[in-house]
Amino acid sequence: MESQKEARILQEPVARPPGASRSQTPNAKERQEGGPVPAAAALGAEADDDSADRLWELPVEPAKRRPECSRCSRPQKVCLCPFLPAHPLHISTHLYIIQHPAEENKVLRTVPLLAACLPQDKCKVKIGRRFSEERDPELSTVCRKSGTLILYPGAEAANLEEFILDSPVYPSTIIIIDGTWSQAKDIFYKNSLFRHPKQVQLKTSISSQYVIRMQPTNRCLSTLECAAVALSILEKNNYIQEISGEDMLKITDAYWNNSHI
Ligand SMILES: [Zn+2]
């Protein structure tokens, strides 16, 4: 673990020069797509987890930020709201996003866009790497409910589409982890809470324009797309998926057209 002084280096620039990576903490290395297993996880150092969580709570944006749109959290000059549904979509499923702290400060975040598409009471974002009964009793209760699913691929995961056909309890809640593969893996396997919900995955032929252009190495679908596909299956409403698909293309075009701003 590096010192707090070194850690504060992380809060200065939004975009760090390549050479700055030498000063990253072990946890900051998790930001790198396709990087090694997170050092903190490899060490199994629980004591480091608390300090790591505090590190991620440090602001990484400069004090003077460009004015942001209150709905999509993008700089106002490149607001993406015209590409989002005018009103929140009506859904009955509750969505919990477990967001790795590194995702919160990424320049192009998809979770605020997702939150802007859904009713506030149906989309909750929990930021952190470690969750427990004591720290988060609400999430603990959600995880133990029989109608809760967690979206994470693997041999143990059922295909969501097939699962809901036979499920005795129709799913009311789905948990999605927002992060790179290594971050999501760390969160999924290092939190025993996430053993409780039924593990499901998406077997979909949907290709991701967003992935091709934005995430070429380390993710299958963006969190926004995962949520849209999962919700469209759970809500039996292809409109959710279609509107998200269209939006993703428009959003990525708008992003690239304005990325110099
Ligand atoms: Zn906006």
From TrEMBL:
SMART domains cross-referenced by the UniProt entry: DTW
Annotated spans, Disordered: 1-52
EC number: 2.5.1.25
Residues annotated as domain DTW: 65-244
InterPro entries: DTW, DTWD2/TAPT
GO MF entries: tRNA-uridine aminocarboxypropyltransferase activity
Keyword tRNA processing in annotation: yes
Designated name of the protein: tRNA-uridine aminocarboxypropyltransferase
Naturally occurring in which organism (per UniProt): Macaca nemestrina
